[in-house]
Design a protein that fits this description.
This protein is an alpha+beta fold. The protein is built from eight helices and five strands, in the order ααααββββααβαα.
């Protein structure tokens, strides 16, 4: 009886997933290191790195007026522990990365934000399980959650890394 090996791509993918699983389980959270890096990056560089991709990702929704209710409002997305975090606002038809606090803060682990961004789990479940928490103007935070849940968009960290 002949034994066949899986295709190289499948093997590499399986090995990659297993390696990530082990790393997630045994390595400490990268949040403190990311916080140190975040504090050292000047705001103009953050704006250059994040505003164009955000506006591209949500271009159709922005053009359709879906973000108009968020005009001149600020929402902070923050990793548990306070750093790193980013405050996003909407002005003159564009999503903007700004310095300072948000009117609402959505806080959670890196894993919870990744799950939300990749749409691997219903956003309501993430909030009910308290993996994501809204503080401050909860009505504003819930409005953003509902908007993101209603939009057709797709984002994966694997695509971002490979591009």
């Amino acid at each position: 009886m002949a034994f066949s090996l899986p295709p190289i791509a499948t093997f590499n993918s399986l090995l990659f997933e297993q390696t990530l699983s082990v790393l997630r389980e045994y390595l400490p959270s990268p949040a403190p290191v990311l916080g140190v890096i975040d504090r050292r990056i000047p705001m103009p560089f953050k704006q250059l790195a994040l505003e164009a991709p955000l506006n591209h990702l949500f271009a159709q929704a922005i053009n359709d007026g879906e973000f108009e209710d968020f005009e001149c409002r600020r929402i902070r997305l923050e990793v548990s522990g306070g750093q790193p975090g980013i405050t996003i606002g909407f002005w003159a038809g564009r999503l903007r990365v700004i310095d300072g606090p948000g009117e609402a803060t959505i806080r959670g682990s890196l894993a919870a934000f990744k799950t939300l961004a990749e749409r691997q789990q219903d956003p309501d479940q993430l909030f009910f399980q308290r993996r994501l928490i809204i503080e401050g103007d909860t009505e504003l935070g819930l409005a953003l959650k509902n908007l993101l849940d209603s939009l057709e968009w797709q984002f994966t960290f694997r695509q971002m890394i490979s591009n």
